[in-house]
Amino acid sequence: MGYSDSARRESSAWGRSNGAGGGGWGGVGTGVPGGESIEAGRGRGAAKGADRARWAAVIAALVLVLVPVRTTSAGAESGVAWQACPAAAGAGNALCATISVPLNYADAGGPRIEVMVSRIPAAGPSKGVLFGNPGGPGADALGFWAAASGRVPELREFELVAVQPRGLRWSTPLSCSSPVDSLSMTLRMACEVQRPGYPETVTTETIARDTEEVRRALGVERISFLGISWGTNLGAVYGTLFPQHTDKLVLDSNVDPNTGWAEQTARVPAGVSRRLEDMLDWIAANDSIYGLGDTRDAVRAEWRRQIGAQNGGWFAPTVQATTFAAYTRTLWPYLAQGMREYRDDPQQLRFLTYLSRPAAVTDPTSGWMRTATQCNEDGGVDLAALTGAAVTALAESDPFRQQEAVTRAGITCVGWPRSTTRVRADGGALTTAPLLLQSRHDPATSGAAALSAALHGSIIWVGGGDHGNFTRDNPILNQAVLHYLRTGEVTRTEVPEPPITTPNPPATVPGS
What we know:
Elements: H1 3-17, H2 44-66, E1 83-84, E2 95-102, E3 112-120, E4 129-133, H3 144-151, E5 159-163, H4 184-194, H5 204-218, E6 223-228, H6 230-241, E7 246-252, H7 261-266, H8 268-285, H9 287-290, H10 296-309, H11 317-325, H12 332-344, H13 350-356, H14 365-377, H15 383-395, H16 399-408, E8 435-439, H17 448-455, E9 458-462, H18 475-487, E10 494-495
Parallel strand pairs: 4-5, 4-6, 6-7, 7-8, 8-9, 9-10
Antiparallel strand pairs: 1-2, 2-3, 3-5
Protein backbone atom coordinates (compact mmCIF):
# COMPACT_ATOMS: atom_id res chain seq x y z
CA MET A 1 0.00 0.00 0.00
CA GLY A 2 1.48 3.33 -1.06
CA TYR A 3 1.61 6.33 1.21
CA SER A 4 -1.08 8.14 -0.76
CA ASP A 5 -3.44 5.20 -0.26
CA SER A 6 -2.72 5.22 3.46
CA ALA A 7 -3.46 8.93 3.67
CA ARG A 8 -6.68 8.51 1.71
CA ARG A 9 -7.84 5.73 4.05
CA GLU A 10 -7.18 7.93 7.07
CA SER A 11 -8.98 10.88 5.58
CA SER A 12 -11.99 9.30 3.96
CA ALA A 13 -13.65 8.23 7.19
CA TRP A 14 -15.07 11.69 7.81
CA GLY A 15 -16.87 11.73 4.51
CA ARG A 16 -18.68 8.54 5.48
CA SER A 17 -19.93 10.11 8.72
CA ASN A 18 -20.88 13.57 7.47
CA GLY A 19 -24.56 13.99 6.89
CA ALA A 20 -23.95 16.29 3.95
CA GLY A 21 -21.77 13.78 2.17
CA GLY A 22 -18.87 16.13 2.61
CA GLY A 23 -15.20 15.95 3.32
CA GLY A 24 -12.83 16.07 6.19
CA TRP A 25 -9.15 16.21 6.95
CA GLY A 26 -8.14 14.00 4.11
CA GLY A 27 -11.05 14.50 1.80
CA VAL A 28 -14.59 13.47 1.20
CA GLY A 29 -16.73 10.46 0.58
CA THR A 30 -18.25 9.86 -2.79
CA GLY A 31 -20.60 12.75 -2.11
CA VAL A 32 -23.25 10.89 -4.08
CA PRO A 33 -26.11 9.11 -2.32
CA GLY A 34 -25.60 5.40 -2.77
CA GLY A 35 -22.15 5.92 -4.25
CA GLU A 36 -23.34 6.11 -7.89
CA SER A 37 -21.25 7.91 -10.46
CA ILE A 38 -22.43 11.40 -11.33
CA GLU A 39 -23.71 11.65 -14.87
CA ALA A 40 -21.40 13.93 -16.78
CA GLY A 41 -22.31 16.72 -19.16
CA ARG A 42 -25.23 18.41 -17.43
CA GLY A 43 -25.65 22.16 -17.81
CA ARG A 44 -24.86 24.68 -15.10
CA GLY A 45 -28.54 25.45 -14.47
CA ALA A 46 -29.39 21.84 -13.72
CA ALA A 47 -26.18 21.62 -11.71
CA LYS A 48 -27.21 24.34 -9.28
CA GLY A 49 -30.69 22.90 -8.95
CA ALA A 50 -29.40 19.44 -8.11
CA ASP A 51 -26.93 20.80 -5.60
CA ARG A 52 -29.56 22.95 -3.91
CA ALA A 53 -31.91 19.97 -3.77
CA ARG A 54 -29.29 17.99 -1.84
CA TRP A 55 -28.72 20.78 0.69
CA ALA A 56 -32.49 21.33 0.99
CA ALA A 57 -32.90 17.64 1.77
CA VAL A 58 -30.36 18.01 4.55
CA ILE A 59 -32.30 20.94 6.06
CA ALA A 60 -35.61 19.10 5.82
CA ALA A 61 -34.18 16.01 7.48
CA LEU A 62 -32.73 18.11 10.29
CA VAL A 63 -36.10 19.71 10.98
CA LEU A 64 -37.79 16.31 11.08
CA VAL A 65 -35.21 14.89 13.44
CA LEU A 66 -34.88 17.79 15.86
CA VAL A 67 -37.99 19.20 16.08
CA PRO A 68 15.06 4.42 29.93
CA VAL A 69 13.37 2.08 27.27
CA ARG A 70 13.16 -1.70 27.64
CA THR A 71 14.78 -3.43 24.70
CA THR A 72 13.27 -6.88 25.31
CA SER A 73 10.58 -8.03 22.91
CA ALA A 74 7.16 -6.54 23.57
CA GLY A 75 5.66 -10.01 23.42
CA ALA A 76 8.43 -12.17 24.83
CA GLU A 77 7.45 -12.03 28.51
CA SER A 78 3.85 -10.92 28.40
CA GLY A 79 1.99 -14.15 27.73
CA VAL A 80 -0.07 -12.43 25.03
CA ALA A 81 -1.33 -14.96 22.47
CA TRP A 82 -0.10 -13.81 19.05
CA GLN A 83 -1.64 -15.17 15.86
CA ALA A 84 -2.13 -14.22 12.22
CA CYS A 85 -3.73 -10.83 11.63
CA PRO A 86 -6.98 -10.51 9.67
CA ALA A 87 -6.19 -10.77 5.98
CA ALA A 88 -8.04 -7.53 5.20
CA ALA A 89 -5.87 -5.58 7.66
CA GLY A 90 -2.91 -5.44 5.27
CA ALA A 91 -0.57 -6.15 8.17
CA GLY A 92 1.99 -8.13 6.19
CA ASN A 93 4.10 -10.36 8.42
CA ALA A 94 2.85 -8.75 11.62
CA LEU A 95 1.17 -10.89 14.24
CA CYS A 96 -1.98 -9.82 16.07
CA ALA A 97 -3.55 -10.38 19.47
CA THR A 98 -6.65 -9.24 21.31
CA ILE A 99 -6.28 -7.56 24.68
CA SER A 100 -9.06 -6.97 27.19
CA VAL A 101 -9.60 -3.39 28.41
CA PRO A 102 -12.30 -1.75 30.56
CA LEU A 103 -15.43 -0.63 28.73
CA ASN A 104 -15.50 2.49 30.92
CA TYR A 105 -12.43 3.57 32.88
CA ALA A 106 -14.68 5.22 35.46
CA ASP A 107 -15.77 1.67 36.28
CA ALA A 108 -12.52 -0.21 35.70
CA GLY A 109 -13.84 -3.32 37.44
CA GLY A 110 -16.98 -3.44 35.31
CA PRO A 111 -17.68 -4.76 31.80
CA ARG A 112 -14.79 -5.12 29.38
CA ILE A 113 -14.21 -4.93 25.64
CA GLU A 114 -11.34 -6.01 23.40
CA VAL A 115 -8.84 -4.14 21.25
CA MET A 116 -6.75 -5.86 18.63
CA VAL A 117 -3.02 -5.16 18.48
CA SER A 118 -0.50 -5.82 15.70
CA ARG A 119 3.20 -6.31 16.32
CA ILE A 120 6.29 -6.55 14.13
CA PRO A 121 9.38 -7.61 16.12
CA ALA A 122 12.65 -5.78 15.69
CA ALA A 123 14.92 -7.21 13.01
CA GLY A 124 17.85 -7.25 15.46
CA PRO A 125 18.47 -6.07 19.01
CA SER A 126 15.55 -3.77 19.70
CA LYS A 127 16.17 -0.06 20.14
CA GLY A 128 12.79 0.40 21.80
CA VAL A 129 9.08 -0.15 21.35
CA LEU A 130 7.36 2.22 18.93
CA PHE A 131 3.56 2.47 18.87
CA GLY A 132 1.81 4.13 15.93
CA ASN A 133 -1.52 5.48 14.75
CA PRO A 134 -2.31 6.61 11.17
CA GLY A 135 -5.01 9.13 12.07
CA GLY A 136 -8.67 9.60 11.32
CA PRO A 137 -10.25 9.13 13.72
CA GLY A 138 -11.59 6.10 11.94
CA ALA A 139 -8.51 4.73 10.18
CA ASP A 140 -7.59 1.08 10.63
CA ALA A 141 -4.24 0.80 12.41
CA LEU A 142 -3.20 -2.84 12.18
CA GLY A 143 -1.45 -2.47 8.82
CA PHE A 144 0.19 0.85 9.63
CA TRP A 145 3.67 -0.49 10.37
CA ALA A 146 3.76 -3.01 7.53
CA ALA A 147 3.36 -0.10 5.10
CA ALA A 148 5.60 2.36 6.96
CA SER A 149 8.49 -0.05 7.51
CA GLY A 150 8.32 -1.04 3.86
CA ARG A 151 9.05 2.56 2.93
CA VAL A 152 11.62 3.17 5.71
CA PRO A 153 13.29 -0.19 6.50
CA GLU A 154 15.31 1.34 9.36
CA LEU A 155 12.09 1.33 11.39
CA ARG A 156 12.71 -2.39 11.85
CA GLU A 157 15.30 -1.41 14.44
CA PHE A 158 12.30 -1.02 16.77
CA GLU A 159 9.49 -3.23 17.99
CA LEU A 160 6.52 -1.87 16.02
CA VAL A 161 3.10 -1.98 17.67
CA ALA A 162 -0.28 -0.62 16.53
CA VAL A 163 -3.53 -0.64 18.50
CA GLN A 164 -6.77 -0.84 16.52
CA PRO A 165 -8.91 1.84 18.22
CA ARG A 166 -12.04 0.79 20.03
CA GLY A 167 -15.15 1.16 17.92
CA LEU A 168 -13.49 -0.13 14.74
CA ARG A 169 -13.70 -3.58 13.20
CA TRP A 170 -11.39 -6.21 14.72
CA SER A 171 -11.55 -4.42 18.05
CA THR A 172 -14.97 -4.38 19.73
CA PRO A 173 -16.85 -2.50 16.99
CA LEU A 174 -19.56 0.07 17.18
CA SER A 175 -22.77 -1.19 15.60
CA CYS A 176 -24.91 1.69 14.41
CA SER A 177 -26.90 0.42 11.45
CA SER A 178 -29.85 2.71 10.81
CA PRO A 179 -32.12 3.47 7.85
CA VAL A 180 -30.94 7.10 7.98
CA ASP A 181 -27.56 6.84 9.63
CA SER A 182 -26.39 10.05 7.95
CA LEU A 183 -28.15 12.04 10.68
CA SER A 184 -26.21 12.03 13.91
CA MET A 185 -29.23 11.96 16.19
CA THR A 186 -30.51 8.81 14.55
CA LEU A 187 -26.98 7.42 14.37
CA ARG A 188 -26.40 8.05 18.09
CA MET A 189 -29.66 6.29 18.95
CA ALA A 190 -28.78 3.33 16.73
CA CYS A 191 -25.32 3.01 18.29
CA GLU A 192 -26.77 3.10 21.80
CA VAL A 193 -29.48 0.54 21.10
CA GLN A 194 -26.95 -1.96 19.75
CA ARG A 195 -24.58 -1.67 22.74
CA PRO A 196 -25.85 0.53 25.58
CA GLY A 197 -23.17 2.64 27.24
CA TYR A 198 -20.51 1.95 24.61
CA PRO A 199 -20.82 4.90 22.17
CA GLU A 200 -20.08 7.51 24.85
CA THR A 201 -16.76 5.81 25.69
CA VAL A 202 -15.29 6.23 22.20
CA THR A 203 -13.07 9.26 22.88
CA THR A 204 -9.42 10.19 22.36
CA GLU A 205 -8.78 9.97 26.10
CA THR A 206 -10.29 6.50 26.38
CA ILE A 207 -8.30 5.28 23.38
CA ALA A 208 -5.14 6.67 24.99
CA ARG A 209 -6.02 4.71 28.12
CA ASP A 210 -6.52 1.61 25.96
CA THR A 211 -3.00 2.21 24.65
CA GLU A 212 -1.73 2.24 28.22
CA GLU A 213 -3.52 -1.05 28.93
CA VAL A 214 -1.79 -2.56 25.91
CA ARG A 215 1.60 -1.31 27.12
CA ARG A 216 0.99 -2.97 30.47
CA ALA A 217 -0.18 -6.21 28.87
CA LEU A 218 2.96 -6.33 26.73
CA GLY A 219 5.20 -5.84 29.78
CA VAL A 220 6.96 -2.78 28.38
CA GLU A 221 8.12 -0.02 30.74
CA ARG A 222 8.16 2.88 28.27
CA ILE A 223 7.01 3.35 24.69
CA SER A 224 7.61 5.82 21.90
CA PHE A 225 4.72 6.90 19.69
CA LEU A 226 4.29 8.03 16.07
CA GLY A 227 0.96 9.70 15.31
CA ILE A 228 -0.29 11.25 12.09
CA SER A 229 -3.14 13.78 11.88
CA TRP A 230 -5.67 12.80 14.60
CA GLY A 231 -2.93 10.45 15.78
CA THR A 232 -1.02 13.55 16.92
CA ASN A 233 -3.88 14.30 19.30
CA LEU A 234 -3.86 10.70 20.51
CA GLY A 235 -0.10 10.76 21.07
CA ALA A 236 -0.26 14.10 22.87
CA VAL A 237 -3.02 12.85 25.16
CA TYR A 238 -1.11 9.65 25.92
CA GLY A 239 2.04 11.61 26.76
CA THR A 240 0.03 13.99 28.96
CA LEU A 241 -1.69 11.22 30.90
CA PHE A 242 1.25 8.80 31.12
CA PRO A 243 4.51 10.77 30.90
CA GLN A 244 6.32 8.24 33.08
CA HIS A 245 5.73 5.59 30.42
CA THR A 246 6.43 7.84 27.41
CA ASP A 247 9.84 7.80 25.77
CA LYS A 248 9.68 9.81 22.51
CA LEU A 249 6.77 11.33 20.58
CA VAL A 250 6.83 11.98 16.83
CA LEU A 251 3.71 13.94 15.86
CA ASP A 252 3.16 14.46 12.14
CA SER A 253 0.60 16.92 10.65
CA ASN A 254 -0.69 18.29 13.89
CA VAL A 255 -4.15 18.89 15.25
CA ASP A 256 -4.64 22.20 17.05
CA PRO A 257 -5.15 21.37 20.75
CA ASN A 258 -7.10 24.58 21.35
CA THR A 259 -9.75 24.20 18.63
CA GLY A 260 -12.87 22.04 18.52
CA TRP A 261 -13.40 19.40 15.86
CA ALA A 262 -16.14 21.23 13.98
CA GLU A 263 -14.00 24.32 13.61
CA GLN A 264 -10.88 22.36 12.67
CA THR A 265 -12.77 20.41 10.03
CA ALA A 266 -14.43 23.58 8.75
CA ARG A 267 -10.99 25.02 8.03
CA VAL A 268 -10.17 22.18 5.64
CA PRO A 269 -12.07 23.49 2.58
CA ALA A 270 -10.19 26.79 2.82
CA GLY A 271 -6.93 24.85 3.13
CA VAL A 272 -7.79 22.80 0.06
CA SER A 273 -8.69 25.98 -1.81
CA ARG A 274 -5.26 27.46 -0.98
CA ARG A 275 -3.51 24.25 -2.01
CA LEU A 276 -5.50 24.30 -5.26
CA GLU A 277 -3.45 27.33 -6.32
CA ASP A 278 -0.27 25.22 -6.11
CA MET A 279 -1.90 22.41 -8.07
CA LEU A 280 -3.03 24.80 -10.80
CA ASP A 281 0.51 26.20 -11.08
CA TRP A 282 1.95 22.67 -11.39
CA ILE A 283 -0.56 21.68 -14.07
CA ALA A 284 0.19 24.90 -15.97
CA ALA A 285 3.92 24.17 -15.76
CA ASN A 286 3.17 20.78 -17.35
CA ASP A 287 0.98 22.16 -20.13
CA SER A 288 3.08 20.38 -22.74
CA ILE A 289 1.88 17.09 -21.19
CA TYR A 290 -1.73 17.81 -20.23
CA GLY A 291 -2.73 20.73 -22.44
CA LEU A 292 -5.04 22.25 -19.83
CA GLY A 293 -3.55 25.74 -20.03
CA ASP A 294 -0.15 27.32 -19.53
CA THR A 295 -1.16 29.72 -16.74
CA ARG A 296 -2.89 29.30 -13.39
CA ASP A 297 -5.93 31.23 -14.61
CA ALA A 298 -6.21 29.18 -17.80
CA VAL A 299 -6.18 25.90 -15.87
CA ARG A 300 -8.63 27.33 -13.34
CA ALA A 301 -11.03 28.21 -16.16
CA GLU A 302 -11.01 24.60 -17.38
CA TRP A 303 -11.38 23.33 -13.79
CA ARG A 304 -14.46 25.51 -13.31
CA ARG A 305 -15.90 24.50 -16.67
CA GLN A 306 -15.68 20.84 -15.71
CA ILE A 307 -17.35 21.44 -12.35
CA GLY A 308 -20.23 23.18 -14.06
CA ALA A 309 -20.62 20.29 -16.48
CA GLN A 310 -20.66 17.73 -13.65
CA ASN A 311 -23.63 19.05 -11.62
CA GLY A 312 -21.68 21.92 -10.09
CA GLY A 313 -20.89 22.45 -6.41
CA TRP A 314 -19.39 20.13 -3.85
CA PHE A 315 -20.66 16.93 -5.45
CA ALA A 316 -18.82 17.32 -8.75
CA PRO A 317 -16.19 14.57 -9.30
CA THR A 318 -13.54 17.16 -10.21
CA VAL A 319 -14.10 18.96 -6.88
CA GLN A 320 -13.84 15.78 -4.85
CA ALA A 321 -10.83 14.57 -6.83
CA THR A 322 -9.19 17.94 -6.20
CA THR A 323 -9.83 17.59 -2.48
CA PHE A 324 -8.04 14.25 -2.28
CA ALA A 325 -5.19 15.42 -4.49
CA ALA A 326 -4.61 18.40 -2.20
CA TYR A 327 -3.24 16.09 0.49
CA THR A 328 -0.25 14.76 -1.39
CA ARG A 329 1.58 15.92 -4.50
CA THR A 330 1.97 12.32 -5.63
CA LEU A 331 -1.70 12.50 -6.68
CA TRP A 332 -1.41 15.62 -8.81
CA PRO A 333 -0.58 13.77 -12.05
CA TYR A 334 -3.74 11.67 -11.56
CA LEU A 335 -5.83 14.82 -11.19
CA ALA A 336 -4.28 16.43 -14.26
CA GLN A 337 -4.72 13.28 -16.34
CA GLY A 338 -8.29 12.92 -15.09
CA MET A 339 -9.09 16.49 -16.13
CA ARG A 340 -7.49 15.96 -19.53
CA GLU A 341 -9.42 12.75 -20.19
CA TYR A 342 -12.68 14.30 -19.05
CA ARG A 343 -12.11 17.31 -21.29
CA ASP A 344 -11.61 15.03 -24.27
CA ASP A 345 -14.42 12.64 -23.36
CA PRO A 346 -16.98 13.54 -20.64
CA GLN A 347 -17.76 9.85 -20.18
CA GLN A 348 -14.13 9.14 -19.22
CA LEU A 349 -13.99 9.43 -15.43
CA ARG A 350 -11.52 6.72 -14.44
CA PHE A 351 -8.89 8.97 -12.81
CA LEU A 352 -11.43 11.35 -11.30
CA THR A 353 -13.32 8.39 -9.86
CA TYR A 354 -10.11 6.92 -8.45
CA LEU A 355 -9.43 10.15 -6.58
CA SER A 356 -13.00 10.96 -5.56
CA ARG A 357 -13.90 7.60 -4.07
CA PRO A 358 -12.43 6.78 -0.64
CA ALA A 359 -9.69 4.17 -0.70
CA ALA A 360 -10.82 0.85 0.70
CA VAL A 361 -13.20 2.22 3.32
CA THR A 362 -15.33 -0.90 3.09
CA ASP A 363 -16.39 -1.16 6.73
CA PRO A 364 -18.97 1.23 8.20
CA THR A 365 -17.31 1.28 11.61
CA SER A 366 -14.82 3.78 10.19
CA GLY A 367 -17.42 6.53 9.86
CA TRP A 368 -19.25 5.54 13.03
CA MET A 369 -16.10 5.65 15.11
CA ARG A 370 -15.06 9.00 13.66
CA THR A 371 -18.45 10.53 14.40
CA ALA A 372 -18.49 9.10 17.93
CA THR A 373 -15.01 10.37 18.77
CA GLN A 374 -15.51 13.87 17.49
CA CYS A 375 -19.08 14.31 18.69
CA ASN A 376 -18.39 12.93 22.16
CA GLU A 377 -15.77 15.68 22.41
CA ASP A 378 -17.71 18.43 20.60
CA GLY A 379 -21.48 17.83 20.67
CA GLY A 380 -24.07 20.43 21.56
CA VAL A 381 -24.96 21.64 18.05
CA ASP A 382 -27.35 24.59 17.69
CA LEU A 383 -30.09 23.79 15.16
CA ALA A 384 -30.79 27.42 14.28
CA ALA A 385 -27.13 28.06 13.47
CA LEU A 386 -26.90 24.88 11.45
CA THR A 387 -30.07 25.60 9.47
CA GLY A 388 -28.82 29.12 8.73
CA ALA A 389 -25.50 27.74 7.56
CA ALA A 390 -27.22 25.26 5.27
CA VAL A 391 -29.33 28.03 3.77
CA THR A 392 -26.15 30.04 3.23
CA ALA A 393 -24.62 27.05 1.47
CA LEU A 394 -27.56 26.90 -0.93
CA ALA A 395 -26.70 30.36 -2.22
CA GLU A 396 -22.93 29.86 -2.26
CA SER A 397 -21.33 29.15 -5.64
CA ASP A 398 -17.88 28.19 -4.31
CA PRO A 399 -18.02 24.46 -3.47
CA PHE A 400 -15.38 24.78 -0.76
CA ARG A 401 -17.31 27.57 0.96
CA GLN A 402 -20.46 25.47 0.79
CA GLN A 403 -18.80 22.74 2.77
CA GLU A 404 -17.13 25.16 5.16
CA ALA A 405 -20.44 26.77 6.11
CA VAL A 406 -22.31 23.63 7.15
CA THR A 407 -19.27 21.99 8.74
CA ARG A 408 -18.49 24.98 10.94
CA ALA A 409 -22.09 24.92 12.17
CA GLY A 410 -21.57 21.31 13.30
CA ILE A 411 -23.62 19.19 10.92
CA THR A 412 -21.65 16.08 11.84
CA CYS A 413 -22.79 16.15 15.47
CA VAL A 414 -26.47 17.08 15.23
CA GLY A 415 -28.23 15.31 18.10
CA TRP A 416 -25.07 13.73 19.52
CA PRO A 417 -24.44 15.05 23.06
CA ARG A 418 -20.95 15.70 24.37
CA SER A 419 -19.82 12.99 26.79
CA THR A 420 -16.40 14.27 27.81
CA THR A 421 -14.03 17.22 27.92
CA ARG A 422 -10.88 17.00 25.82
CA VAL A 423 -7.65 16.44 27.72
CA ARG A 424 -5.51 19.58 27.72
CA ALA A 425 -2.11 18.69 26.21
CA ASP A 426 0.77 19.23 28.62
CA GLY A 427 4.33 18.00 28.04
CA GLY A 428 5.80 19.39 31.24
CA ALA A 429 6.48 15.95 32.72
CA LEU A 430 7.95 14.34 29.60
CA THR A 431 11.61 13.37 29.84
CA THR A 432 12.29 13.85 26.11
CA ALA A 433 10.87 16.82 24.21
CA PRO A 434 8.49 15.69 21.43
CA LEU A 435 9.30 16.14 17.74
CA LEU A 436 6.56 17.67 15.58
CA LEU A 437 6.51 17.58 11.77
CA GLN A 438 4.41 20.03 9.78
CA SER A 439 4.30 21.00 6.13
CA ARG A 440 3.94 24.71 5.49
CA HIS A 441 0.77 24.49 3.38
CA ASP A 442 -0.93 21.43 4.86
CA PRO A 443 -4.59 21.80 3.85
CA ALA A 444 -5.94 19.71 6.72
CA THR A 445 -4.06 20.60 9.90
CA SER A 446 -2.11 23.61 11.07
CA GLY A 447 -1.69 23.02 14.79
CA ALA A 448 2.07 22.45 15.08
CA ALA A 449 2.90 25.76 16.74
CA ALA A 450 0.11 25.48 19.31
CA LEU A 451 0.75 21.81 20.08
CA SER A 452 4.51 22.33 20.28
CA ALA A 453 3.97 25.12 22.80
CA ALA A 454 1.73 22.89 24.93
CA LEU A 455 4.14 19.94 24.82
CA HIS A 456 7.40 21.95 24.91
CA GLY A 457 8.44 20.28 21.67
CA SER A 458 10.54 21.00 18.60
CA ILE A 459 9.21 21.44 15.06
CA ILE A 460 10.66 20.40 11.72
CA TRP A 461 8.90 22.45 9.04
CA VAL A 462 8.51 20.67 5.69
CA GLY A 463 8.21 22.52 2.39
CA GLY A 464 5.05 22.16 0.31
CA GLY A 465 1.70 21.04 1.68
CA ASP A 466 1.56 17.25 2.03
CA HIS A 467 -0.57 15.94 4.87
CA GLY A 468 1.60 13.31 6.52
CA ASN A 469 5.34 13.68 6.00
CA PHE A 470 7.40 10.91 7.61
CA THR A 471 8.06 7.83 5.42
CA ARG A 472 7.39 9.67 2.18
CA ASP A 473 10.14 9.87 -0.45
CA ASN A 474 11.95 12.47 1.62
CA PRO A 475 15.24 10.95 2.83
CA ILE A 476 16.38 14.13 4.57
CA LEU A 477 13.28 14.17 6.77
CA ASN A 478 13.22 10.42 7.26
CA GLN A 479 16.80 10.38 8.52
CA ALA A 480 16.12 13.32 10.85
CA VAL A 481 13.19 11.45 12.41
CA LEU A 482 15.17 8.23 12.75
CA HIS A 483 17.98 10.15 14.45
CA TYR A 484 15.48 11.57 16.93
CA LEU A 485 14.02 8.13 17.66
CA ARG A 486 17.50 6.75 18.28
CA THR A 487 18.92 9.63 20.32
CA GLY A 488 16.20 12.11 21.27
CA GLU A 489 18.09 14.83 19.39
CA VAL A 490 16.53 17.17 16.81
CA THR A 491 19.13 18.29 14.28
CA ARG A 492 17.00 20.17 11.74
CA THR A 493 14.26 22.78 11.71
CA GLU A 494 13.52 22.86 7.95
CA VAL A 495 13.51 20.28 5.15
CA PRO A 496 12.38 20.57 1.51
CA GLU A 497 9.24 18.93 0.19
CA PRO A 498 9.60 15.52 -1.45
CA PRO A 499 9.61 15.14 -5.24
CA ILE A 500 6.66 13.87 -7.24
CA THR A 501 7.48 10.28 -8.12
CA THR A 502 4.22 9.38 -9.89
CA PRO A 503 4.59 8.78 -13.65
CA ASN A 504 3.91 12.00 -15.50
CA PRO A 505 1.52 11.43 -17.16
CA PRO A 506 0.15 8.26 -15.52
CA ALA A 507 -1.00 5.57 -17.93
CA THR A 508 -3.18 3.49 -15.63
CA VAL A 509 -5.26 3.92 -12.49
CA PRO A 510 -3.47 2.39 -9.47
CA GLY A 511 -4.81 -1.03 -8.64
CA SER A 512 -6.50 -1.50 -12.01
